[in-house]
Amino acid sequence: MFRAMGEGRIKAVWIMATNPAVSLPDSNAVRAALARCDFVAVSDCVKNTDTAKFADVLLPAAGWGEKDGTVTNSERRISRQRSFTSAPGEVKPDWWIISEVAQRMGYAAAFDYSCPADIFREHAGLSGFENSGERLFDISTLAGLDDDGYEALKPVQWPVNAANPFGTERLLGNGSFPSADGRAQFIPTKPGIPAYWPASEYPLVMNTGRSRDQWHTMTRTGTAAKLGRHSPEPYVEIGAKDASASGVSDGGLAEITSPLGKAVLRVRINEDQRPGMVFTPMHWNDQYASQAIAGSLIAPATDPVSGQPELKCAPVRVSDAKFRWSGLLVSRRLVSPARFDRIGYWSRRTGNDCHIYQLAGHEDPALAVQWAPEYFRKVLAVRDIEYSDQGRGIYRAVHIGREGIRACLFIGSSPATPYSDWLESLFSQKMLTQESRAAVLFGRPAAGACDNGAIVCACYNVGRTAIVNAILRQGLQSVAAVGAALQAGMNCGSCRPELQVLLSNLAARQDAA
Q1: What pTM was estimated for this model as a whole?
Q2: Does the domain made of 455-512 have the CATH classification 1.10.10.1100?
Q3: How would you write 300-320 as a 3-class SS string?
C-alpha cells in the first residue's frame, strides 16, 4: 500500500490507531510516501506522533477508557466494556467517526448506527449468515439482544448459537474440526534463508522487539515517568567480542547502519546476545530521540505466506559514533526537537515535573562556555548558576525561577553526570536549599542523600544501587528475600529475572574473591 502511495497510485489514506511512520520496515520510504500522498487523515488519541506530522486532517479518537462496547480475549470470551471516564473536547469513538464520514459519502442507510449495540447486533447476525458450521465464530444468538440486554450482557465464550445458546467453554472438544473431513488442515511451508543476509560491509544481524516497560511506539507509555526509568534511552545490546571488534564500549554511543538507514543508540554489552547478533527495541521515535527508529534499518522483504516482514533479521554495521562531548539537560518544560538541530544526539524521557534529555555532540567541550549558552538559549535564557572548567572540559548551568529549578545542563568530555532520581526530585521542590544548589552545581547528591541508581523495579521505584546495597549488607540470597526487604519484584514481576541476574552476578563475584 505504501509503495503504491509512493508511486502516486494511492492518493488518499486514512490511518487509525497506528503509527506506520515508526512501526513499518523501511520507515524512510513510508515517510516519503506519506509526504507525497495528496490527502492523509489520522485518527488517534495522541496528537503528537511521527505519523500525525504528515496529516492533513487530525481526528481526535476516544481512548480505551473512554470507549463503550465489547472486547474479546484470547479464550474467546466476549465481555462488555464500559467507559470509566468521559471523552474530552471533541473526542469521538471510532464507530461514530466512521459512520459520520460514510454518511457524508452517500452511505447513510448502511451506516445509520446510533449506539454500539446497533453495531454489535449486526456483527452477531453476520457471524451466523450462511454459516452452517464451517466457521467456528458464530454468535448469532446474540443478534436478538435489545439495548437493555446488550447493556446487561455477561461474559460469554463463543460460539453462542442455537447449538450452544449459553456459550462454549471448550472448543473442539469433540475432536472434530470444521472442515470437510473433520480433520485439521495444515499448510506446509518451506523454510528459506532471509532475503537479506550479513555481508562484509554489514556483518551483524540486527534483531528487534520490545523493551520491558514500553509498548508499541511509546505514544502513550512514553508519557509515563515511571515506565521510562528502567530503559531511559534507545539502545543496542551487543556481546563483548562483537563490541570490541566494532570499536564500541559499554555505555557509549554507537552508529547502527544498514543499507537503508542509520540510528544512533546507547551501547549495552550483554553476554546473552548470540555472537554476530545485536538487539534493538522498536519503540523509540522522533518524539523521543534524534535518530533511533529501528524500522529505518529494516528492509521491506516479506514472508510469502504470512506477509510478515523480516523484522528479526537486518544486516547492520556497528561503529563508534565518535562524539566529543556528552550532556544531560533536565527541563521543566518540554523542549521542541527543533531546538536540538545543532546537537549530534539527543534522547528524551518523561520525568516527574520535568523532561530529561541525554545529549552528545562534536563540539569542543573545553569551549562549552562559549557555544552552550547559544545552543540552549531558549531553555537557559537566564543562568542563575554557571560553572566552567575548560581544562577538564566541564560546563554546568542552572536556571531557577519562582517555581523552583526551570532547567539545568551538564556537559562533559566524558559521559556526563548520569541521571539519577535525586536530580529529578529537585524539580518537585519550590525552594532549593543551599545544599541542593551546591549538589546541582557539583553534579552529585548532597551529603546524606540517597542515590537510588538505575531503576530496576518500576512498580516501587527501586534502583540498582539500592538493591545491590541491600543484597550485600543484608546477605540476601533470593528474589523473594529482595522483595521482602525492598518490595522489588512483588507486584507485576517483570523485574524478577533482572533481580535474579543481580543475585547470581554478586554471588559469583563473592565466590571469586
Answers
A1: 0.88
A2: yes
A3: CCECCCCCCECCCCEEEEEEE
Q: Confirm if 249 and 243 have CB atoms less than 8 A apart.
A: yes
Q: What is the pLDDT of residues 121-143, one digit of tens each?
A: 999 999 999 998 889 999 999 99
CA–CA dist 292, 101 (Å, integer): 36
Amino acid, res. 339: R
Q: What angle do CA 95, 101, 105 make, to 5 degrees?
A: 135
If one compares 382 and 349, the residue with the highest pLDDT of the two is 349
Task: Yes or no: say if 393 and 412 are a contact pair by the CB < 8 Å rule.
Answer: yes
Question: How do 156-157 and 277-281 pair as beta strands?
Answer: unpaired
Cell numbers describing residue 471: 543484597
CA 503 – CA 482 distance, rounded (Å) = 9
- Per-residue pLDDT reduced to its tens digit, 285-337: 999 999 999 999 999 999 888 889 999 999 999 999 999 999 999 999 999 88
Q: How far apart are CA 24 and CA 41, in angstroms?
A: 18
d(C-alpha 486, C-alpha 461), whole Å: 10
Domains 2-157 and 204-320 share a fold: no
- Alpha-carbon dihedral angle through residues 208, 214, 218, 224, given to the nearest 10 degrees: -160
**The amino acid at 497:** P
The rounded distance, in Å, linking the Cα atoms of 78 and 157 is 6
- The residues, any chain, with a CB within 8 Å of residue 505's CB and separated by 6 or more, are none
Q: Give dist(CA 462, CA 278) in Å, integer.
A: 28
List the domain boundaries for the chain: 2-157, 204-320, 325-442, 455-512
Pick the CATH number of 204-320 from 2.40.40.20, 3.40.50.300, 1.10.3980.10, 1.20.1050.10: 2.40.40.20
The closest alpha carbon to 51, from 37, 67, 65, belongs to 37
What CA–CA distance (Å, rounded) separates 376 from 369? 11
The second-level CATH assignment, the architecture, of 2-157 is 3-Layer(aba) Sandwich (3.40)
Q: From start to end of 413-490, where are the E strands?
A: 455-457, 462-463
- Give residue 86's Cα distance to chain centre: 26
Report the C-alpha gap between 281 and 284 in whole angstroms: 7
366, 347, 345: which is closest to 413 by C-alpha?
A: 366
Q: Which pLDDT tens digit goes with each residue over 306-318?
A: 889 999 999 999 9
As a whole number of angstroms, the distance between CA 188 and CA 186 comes to 6
79, 155 Cβ separation under 8 angstroms: yes
